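User: Good morning. I'm curious how NAP would be positioned relative to this chain. Could you predict the structure with it bound?
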Amino acid sequence: MCALATEWPSGSSSRSFSEREAGRIMFDSRLFEGRTVVLTGAGRGIGAAVLEAFLHCGARVIAHGGRAPPAGGPDGLSDARQDGRVQMFYSDFSTSDGVTRFAEFVRDSTHEIDVLINNAGTMVGRFPAETLTNDQYASIVQLNQTSVVELTRELLPLLQRGQYPAIVNTVSISARMGGSAGSSIYAGTKAFVATYSKALARELAASGIRVNCVSPGTIATDFHERYSSPEKLEATRLSIPLQRLGTAEDCAPAYVFLAAHALSGYVTGQVLEINGGQFIG
Ligand SMILES: NC(=O)c1ccc[n+]([C@@H]2O[C@H](COP(=O)([O-])OP(=O)(O)OC[C@H]3O[C@@H](n4cnc5c(N)ncnc54)[C@H](OP(=O)(O)O)[C@@H]3O)[C@@H](O)[C@H]2O)c1
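Assistant: Good morning! Here's the predicted structure, ligand included:
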């Protein structure tokens, strides 16, 4: 877990925590019984919380855990593994080959899927516009944008066989606000995925496939360990109307909601912002 755990503002911590827990428990543990979910970037951060939420709701999850298995130690999924409800695969999405290998793993594991969640991604680094190299540009675009297009294309035939199929893509508040210094290409890729998802929602509606996005604000995960300082995060926290950074658990229910036909069957082409009011559009 990230060492930058959310600092709860005094007076509101217990209420925020219990509301979050209540939200998780309120999802029916059979909501995704008999359903197959494909999820990328499930090894930590937001993806790990989303994985836990779908397992709680009875899904079978074919998960991409990240680039490589964590070094040593159990990953807390042994029960679900024993029940055959979770399979983990690792590959680097900075190359098309990594995406292709995960798609092959999914096809070898199942003939149909009900939910695809494209979540793997990161800023890669902070690159000032005047010194950005072609290789840096290409690797940010490949990971955050092209991999989403490629995996979606590869898995559409399986989704078309699913029951009430849905795609949920992770975008970012930076797609609307432009992000911070050195993240212009990352922000641009997230804006691409948001618009791509809206266009796909129109194109795939006839096939019964809904397409939506979750747009996290500033969420306390390893992501910010790498790309922010404690001072920058504290300044951000103070600017957020709800006066705290988000958590991965704040985000997970939005994915469950958007993936569940019973809850959001009339919602498609939308971007759900999870940001404590940091951006109100
Ligand atoms: N945290 C935020 O404030 C925030 C805000 C807006 C949007 N987001 C988005 O939310 C998603 C999840 O981020 P997070 O905060 O949970 O970050 P995180 O804790 O760093 O997790 C990112 C996940 O993506 C995977 N990933 C990164 N680079 C990869 C690569 N080259 N190939 C394959 N997998 C790779 C990571 O695997 P490894 O373990 O191999 O790195 C990890 O599983 C990302 O798409 C991110 O852009 C985050």
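Residues 134-159 form the longest helix (26 residues). The domain at 30-69+78-126+134-274 is CATH 3.40.50.720 (Rossmann fold).
Let me know if you'd like a different ligand tried.
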